Amino acid sequence: MAQIPSKRRPRGATSGRTGPAARHSPHRSGGGPSMTDPDWRATNRAHWESLAAIHLAPGGYDLSALRAGAGRLDPILEAELGPVAGLRVLHLQCHIGDETLTLAQRGATVTGLDASAIAIGAARRLAAELGLSDRAHFVEADLYRAAEALPEPGGFDLVLVTWGSLCWLPDLAGWARIVAGFLRPGGRLHLAEGHPAALVFDDRAPGAAGKPGWLVPYFEREAVVLEEEADYANPAARPAAARSVTWMHPLSAVVGALRGAGLALDWLHEHPRVAWRMFRALERDADGLWAFPDRPWLPLAYSLGASRPLWPAWQCSDFGCGRPGPASPPWSGLRRRAMPPS
C-alpha cells in the first residue's frame, strides 16, 4: 500500500514535528472490497480514537496559535480558500476541529463532523475554551450517516474536505452525494488531498537514489489494511489501535463522483508540495510545506473546487453546469436570459 496518510496530516500549523511520516506495514485485505461495513468502520473508528488521544497529548498537535486567537491553515488552503466571514461552513471528517475553529475565528459559522467521540469531545471543549461555541457546532457521526445526524439539506455555503480524508471512504459516489446534498444552490466544495499519483509510492518499497518505490497500483480496487508503526504527528508514539483500512481513489474517480452527484467542477490544481512529510526524501520549505529538494518529480497534492448549480440540470445544458440536459430545453425558441453569476 502507498504512503497514504491518516485522515489528518502533520501540518505546520498544528504539529511541531518535522520527522519522518509514520511507517506502515501494508497488506491487501483478504476480504477485498467485500469487507463488511462493521469490520472496516469499527477498525477505523478505533484507530482514530487512539490517534485523537495522541494528538491531544504533549507532542501531538500544536494548538498555540489557535488558542492565541490566530489559527492558521496550511499555505495551499490559505491561498485558495478565500474569505469565509459570514459563510455557513460544513467541515467533514474534521478530527479535533483545529481547522474548523480557525474558520470560526475568521467569522464563519461552522459545523464539524467526525466519527471519533474523543475527537469531537475535544473539539467541543476547545470551542468553549476559545469562546466560539455560539458559532462552532460539532457532530459525532459516521460520514455515510451524516445526513441523518445533521438534517440540514442545502444548508451550507461551503463544504470543506481536507488532507487524507478520501482514503478512508470505500464509496466515492456516496460521499459526493452527501457533499452535494449539504450545499445550497451556488454553494461550493473545497477539497485538498494527497495526489493519488504520489500515493502509489512508499518509503518501505525499494527506490533509486533514496526516493520511494512503487508499492500499490494506481487503479487498486481492493481494500488495503495498514499497520502503523508510529503516529504521523508524534513519531515517538504508536497508536494503541494500529490497524486501519484504506482505499485508493484515482483522480478521475474523484472528479467523476462529483459530476455524477450533479456538481460542476470549477477548477483543479496540482501541487509539487504537500502539507505533511509524505516521504523521507521530502524537505520542508520556507512556507512549511514539503517537497522534493531537487526537482518536482511528481504531483504530491491536488485541490479542487466544485459547486452546486444555481439552476436545475435541464436549464444548465448550455452552461456547463456539470450534468447533461435535454437537447431542446423548455425555453427553446425563446430569448434566453443570462445565467446569474455563480
Helix proportion range: 10-25%
The termini sit apart by 40 Å
- Shape category: globular
Spatial strand arrangement across the major sheet? 4-3-2-5-6-14-11
Keywords: Methyltransferase, Transferase
Domain Methyltransferase: 89-187
Region (Disordered): 1-41
Pfam family, one: Methyltransf_25
How are the SSEs ordered, and which strands pair?
Elements (H helix, E strand, L loop, with lengths): L26 E2 L8 H20 L7 H4 L7 H6 L7 E5 L5 H8 L3 E6 L2 H13 L6 E5 L5 H4 L6 E7 L9 H11 E12 L1 H4 L1 E2 L10 E2 L9 E4 L15 E4 L4 H10 L3 E8 L11 E2 L5 E2 L9 E7 L35
Parallel strand pairs: 2-3, 2-5, 3-4, 5-6
Antiparallel strand pairs: 1-9, 6-14, 7-8, 9-10, 11-14, 12-13
Helix pairs in contact: 1-5, 7-9
InterPro entries: Methyltransf_25, SAM-dependent_MTases_sf
Keywords: Methyltransferase, Transferase
GO molecular function, one term: methyltransferase activity
Q: How would you describe the overall organization of this protein?
A:
- Residues 1-11 have a biased composition (Basic residues).
- Pfam families: Methyltransf_25.
- Residues 89-187 form the Methyltransferase domain.
- GO terms for molecular function: methyltransferase activity.
- The chain has helices spanning 37-56, 64-67, 75-80, 98-105, 117-129, 146-149, 172-182, 196-199, 251-260; strands at 27-28, 88-92, 109-114, 136-140, 156-162, 183-194, 201-202, 213-214, 224-227, 243-246, 264-271, 283-284, 290-291, 301-307.
- The protein has 342 residues and is α/β, with parallel strands linked by helices.
- It has a single domain, classed as Vaccinia Virus protein VP39 (Rossmann fold), CATH 3.40.50.150.
- The protein has a seven-stranded mixed β-sheet, sandwiched between helices. Strands 1-9-10 form a three-stranded antiparallel β-sheet. It has a two-stranded antiparallel sheet with strand order 7-8.
- The chain is globular.
- Mean pLDDT is 80; it is low at 1-35 and 314-342.
